[in-house]
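Supplementary Methods S3. Complex input for the tetrahydrodeoxyuridine-bound model.
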Amino acid sequence: MKNLEIKDIEILIQKTFEAQKNSYAPYSMFNVGASVLCENGKIYTGCNIENASYPAGICAERVAYCNAISNGEKQFVACCITCSGDNYAYPCGICRQFMSEFDKNTKIIVAKSQNDYKIFDLAELLPHGFEL
Ligand code: THU
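Predicted complex, serialized as structure tokens:
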């Protein structure tokens, strides 16, 4: 598994904030960006996309993952998340479960700014996730 370098983290945070600008969140006004670094070094991004029929909306993390998976990726080194306001954007339970399908040790980076971030192992954020 590729090691997560400081340079990777810097690029991921930058791309995540860029993706957050595309967030479509007219209902919650809460903008989220996500990016995922694949084993081959490629990065895919996503943002949250809401809908008038609220449950039809989707989180930024799953958009980033779906973007990557639909381009043939299956191995994810790290996922970075940013959001509007001065908070760390921890992934919701559904997104944790969605990500754990692929690798329980993917690093989760929650970033408030380019140099204010925390890193977790997905397994720490989702102990005992559902498996078939
Ligand atoms: N949201 C995400 O994009 N990711 C999460 O992990 C939690 C929540 C979005 C969904 C919705 O558009 C907005 O944040 C408010 O819940």
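Strands lie at 32-38, 43-47, 76-83, 107-113, 116-121. The pocket of tetrahydrodeoxyuridine is lined by residues 25, 28, 30, 32, 48, 50, 57, 59-61, 91-92, 95 (CB under 6 Å).
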